[in-house]
Amino acid sequence: MGNELNLASEMVASCSARLGKGEHETAVKGIRAICQYYGGQMIFLPKFKRDNSKTAEQLFGILADAVGDGTAETMLDTIMSQFGGVQVYIPQESRAFRDEVAKEIYERYDGTDESRGELCREYKITFTQIYRLRARAVELQREAKQPSLFDEL
């Protein structure tokens, strides 16, 4: 279970390093888009563009929609060179980016059935998961406010 979660974070780290300083959020946005599209599926990730793979074309389209053409090209090159040539499991966005999704749900959920249903459809999760993720966001906020014994005063 932990390996698929690490794949997304490794992809983010690789793309972030390749894109350069200050581009971490761009890398996260691109990999989240891939997880939204393919989440929960095994896909064959080609190693080279010359393979004219339908998956490579789809990945480029997904990344281009999320981060723009130039950045998508760089990210796709990085993903294919480092993770390509094998079947990979793409985790669901709500699992791979749990804390980020939890914060978004906390901000957007207003307690109504409509907003809950909309969030369930958008993130492809159940009602119960909405409440668990919302509780996780509250926990994260509490942890952020809690001073550490090692913080400098």
Offer a few descriptive terms.
about 150 residues; about 70% helix; two-stranded antiparallel ribbon; mainly alpha
The number of distinct β-strands equals 2
Q: Mind summarizing the main beta sheet? A: 2 strands, antiparallel
Distance between the termini: 40 Å
Shape: globular
Binned strand content = 5-15%
Task: List the SSEs and their pairings.
Blueprint: H1 2-19, H2 24-38, E1 41-45, H3 54-67, H4 69-83, E2 86-90, H5 93-96, H6 98-108, H7 113-123, H8 127-145
Antiparallel strand pairs: 1-2
Helix pairs in contact: 1-2, 1-4, 2-3, 3-4, 6-8
Walk me through what this model shows:
The protein is mostly helical and 153 residues long. The protein is 70% helix and 7% strand. It contains eight helices and two strands; from the N terminus they run ααβααβαααα. The protein has helices at 2-19, 24-38, 54-67, 69-83, 93-96, 98-108, 113-123, 127-145; strands at residues 41-45, 86-90. Strands 1-2 form a two-stranded antiparallel sheet. Helix 1 packs across helix 2, helix 2 packs across helix 3 (54-67) and helix 6 (98-108) crosses helix 8 (127-145). The radius of gyration is 17 Å and the shape is globular.
